Structure to design on (222 residues):
């Protein structure tokens, strides 16, 4: 049983984020708030100054941190998770929100535990792959990928989640100690925590948000 927002798709051109308090830190795994929704930031791109969380985390107004500081504004999202419906494993799930970060925030890609969160196209969800998930409610929990489906995957053997963890990064810890993102937490499928594939979500974001802003075709995901 997946529980998230109803099927919606929309894209808007990035707008200048509202003014932020200078120096407010923005990093993966932090708590973010938009309207009445509380979620976890999944990935931060320091070069593009964009951040990502779950699409069903969207709300009215700017995106803020837990203390009410404005950190950016919504640039676009996809969210097609049926609300309260049983989802077949063949159903494609898209659930991401892109956030244009304010010019004055301090951006980094380091998780609360100190690991650098990177995007490595060679590391993708696979059954049995060791993974960890970080959410603002449950912290870091680790296990393995249980099944890989159409743009999403489930986890077992120790991964836990609660409301508020949505959007949080799911990653594989590399031999050099870095964390390679493979997904963002979405909801639960039966007893299993579920996440959308980062490779799929980032490709969709490039197509929807980046190309719309630039007016040119997006580069392929490496």
């Amino acid at each position: 049983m997946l529980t998230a927002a109803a099927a919606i798709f929309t894209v808007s051109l990035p707008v200048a984020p509202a003014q932020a308090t200078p120096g407010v830190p923005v990093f993966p795994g932090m708590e973010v708030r938009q309207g009445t929704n509380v979620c976890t930031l999944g990935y931060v791109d320091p070069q593009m100054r964009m951040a990502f969380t779950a699409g069903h985390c969207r709300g009215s107004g700017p995106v803020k941190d837990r203390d009410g500081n404005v950190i950016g504004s919504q640039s676009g999202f996809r969210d097609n998770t049926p609300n309260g419906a049983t989802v077949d494993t063949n159903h494609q799930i898209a659930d991401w929100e892109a956030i244009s970060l304010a010019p004055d925030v301090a951006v980094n890609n380091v998780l609360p535990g100190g690991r650098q969160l990177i995007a490595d196209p060679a590391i993708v969800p696979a059954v049995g792959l060791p993974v960890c998930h970080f959410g603002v409610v449950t912290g870091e929990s680790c296990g393995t990928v249980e099944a890989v489906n159409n743009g999403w995957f489930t986890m077992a053997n120790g991964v836990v989640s609660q409301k508020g963890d949505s959007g949080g990064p799911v990653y594989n810890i590399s031999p050099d100690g870095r964390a390679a993102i493979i997904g963002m937490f979405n909801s639960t499928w039966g007893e299993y925590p579920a996440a959308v594939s980062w490779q799929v979500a980032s490709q969709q974001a490039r197509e929807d948000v980046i190309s719309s802003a630039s007016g040119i075709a997006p580069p392929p995901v490496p």
